Predict the structure of EAL domain-containing protein.
Amino acid sequence: RVFSYELQQSQALTENVYWKDTLLRAMENEQLFFYFQPIVAAKTGQIVYTEALLRLKMSDGRIVTPGEFLPSAERAGLNYALDCYVVKAALKILSANPDKKLSINISTAALNDSGWTEALIEAVHQQRLSPEHMIFEITETAVISDMEKAKQIVEELTSLGFRFAVDDFGAGFSSLYYLKHLSVEYVKIDQSLIKDLINDGEDKDFVRAIISMIHVYGKKVVGEGVENAAILEILTSMDVDLVQGFQIGRPAEHWPAAPTDNEDLNPKTFNHSIDRL
Ligand code: C2E
Ligand code: MG
Ligand code: MG
Ligand code: MG
């Protein structure tokens, strides 16, 4: 047993080193890129903003999702570098598409660093971008480590027009303190809670209560991981503001196509994954 424990440890170590190496090289060679997934108004299906989800292209062409490399990246101390890379990439997209609204996922590393904020503000100013078009998705656990600092940075950036969303709400140790004290515009309910919606009873009541609680604090609710029409219907009946998930549009390499003005916007039939641009 001791031996197998040590073997496990050394495998974990090898894996960390592997991903650290791979990511450093990927950042240098710009092999990291985004998939895009629309976040739409529950009642109309209109795209409100689009989330950028990080992807890594391996030399054999395989596309790797963050679940595979983020834990190692974190352990290797690459969070900050990744945050910077992601923001840079997002700014590039926004300056080529000034009418788009884009959300990116950032870690606690960026939020706890005032140099990062300054660089961001400077870049947005220099490129004459609208901060309103940029939404930062932060997870609860990310904020927890240094709440005061994070609060201050969120407030500063919000006052300049940037927007924030709390991601994966309900997945960790949800703190109601965040709802009250963080100036975020959106709260995204975690997929695990959304999946439970197809059960009757307690689970439904629980999610309904969370939704009204978020509304009490004046934030908009986003339902994540909407995989089928039944869940979409339940969420809409529960007054969720925005929805995101495979039922509405899968993450894709191309920007989701925007519906035209006179198009039927029933989200049940409108498939945002089809790129018609
Ligand atoms: P997240 O921000 O909560 O993003 C939602 C995840 O759920 C994405 O996984 C998305 O592909 C997936 N998803 C969307 N709709 C559905 C659905 O209907 N059903 C199911 N089962 N899944 C759905 P992905 O792209 O693998 O990303 C995983 C996580 O990695 C993200 O969760 C986010 O926390 C993190 N991440 C993604 N991009 C970045 C990034 O650029 N920087 C950092 N630091 N983290 C990132
Ligand atoms: Mg997110
Ligand atoms: Mg999430
Ligand atoms: Mg997540």
